[in-house]
TrEMBL record:
Protein's name according to its UniProt entry: MarR family transcriptional regulator
Record-linked InterPro entries: HTH_MarR-typ, MarR/SlyA-like, Tscrpt_reg_MarR-type_CS, WH-like_DNA-bd_sf, WH_DNA-bd_sf
Organism: Streptomyces poriferorum
Coiled coil ranges: none
Keywords: DNA-binding, Transcription, Transcription regulation
Lineage: Bacteria, Bacillati, Actinomycetota, Actinomycetes, Kitasatosporales
Length: 147
């Protein structure tokens, strides 16, 4: 069983991570609202802009119920941002994929998220690589990010 660390340094790091996450979500919600999207809709659109996915896989990645994803995709589809299409590997499976308008909106959303980029710009390439590697270790990923 893992030991829970409660030393002052660990507690401070946990608080700082919480502050970073809160600021990220606050800015993400503002960026989404500027496009008349909810944060959840923006996250799904951003995820799909990387790779078309079946609903079940979207739900796994976002750690939510597939029924929630279906509703989000329905609303994005009604706005012309997402479409459903057959999976070329298994035509019984439907993939959600961004339309051209959806991909463009996802790019605009990403471009408007300054919160993380501005503070990171003050770090050297070496510092950013160390931070990346530490975050990967915290998430149980291998150093190359392949797991």
């Amino acid at each position: 069983m893992a030991t829970t660390r409660t030393d002052p340094l660990t507690l401070e790091v946990v608080e700082l991570i919480g502050a970073v996450v809160a600021r990220y979500y606050e800015e993400y919600e503002q960026a989404a609202a500027a496009h008349s999207l909810t944060g959840a809709q923006a996250r799904v659109l951003g995820l799909l802009s990387l790779d078309p996915l079946p609903m079940r896989r979207i739900a796994q990645k976002l750690k939510c119920e597939p029924s929630n994803v279906t509703g989000i995709v329905d609303r994005l589809e009604a706005r012309g941002l997402v479409e459903r299409r057959p999976d070329p590997a298994d035509r019984r499976v439907k993939l959600a994929a961004p339309t051209e308008k959806g991909a463009s909106t996802a790019r605009e959303l990403r471009a408007s998220l300054d919160f993380a980029r501005e503070p990171l710009a003050g770090l050297s390439d070496t510092d950013r690589a160390v931070l990346r590697d530490l975050l990967r270790r915290m998430l149980g990923m291998d150093p190359a990010g392949l797991s």
